[in-house]
Amino acid sequence: MWNKVPSSFPSPVLDISNQGVMRDSVMWIRGGTGSLAGDRKDRYDQNPAFDRLFNIETAANIGIRFGADTGNAAILFTQPDGRTQPLVWWFGNAANRPPSIATLTVAGDTGEFNFTGNGVRVNGP
Length: 125
Description:
The chain is mainly beta. About 5% of the residues lie in helices and about 15% in strands. It has 1 helix and 3 strands. The longest helix is centred in the first third of the chain and has 7 residues, at about 35-40. The mean pLDDT is about 85.
C-alpha cells in the first residue's frame, strides 16, 4: 500500500463479511503434526511448521481489538498434550543484554494461574 490517499471512511486492507450461516472459521493455519513433540520427532529440521504464526512489527493505536460479543471465549487456550500455553512478556531489554522474562500460565490439571516475574501490583481494591 503505497498510495498515501486517505480513505473517506474506515476501510480495512482486507474485509471479510458473512451475512449468511455460521462458518467454522475465517482463517485456518495448519501444518506439521500440531504437537511440538511430534514435529520435533517427525520433521527433518526438528522444528514446528512455523516459527511465528503472526508477526506484527508496526506501530498501531490498538494491537488486537474485540469490538463484538464472543460467544464462548475471546481467546481460548486448549493446552494440547497437557502443555501449558504461556503468555510471555520481555522486559528490561537493554542493549547487549537478553531481556528479562515474565510469564503467565494456567496449570492443566488444577486450573491455577502461575505467574513468574518480579511480582504482581494491583492498583485498586
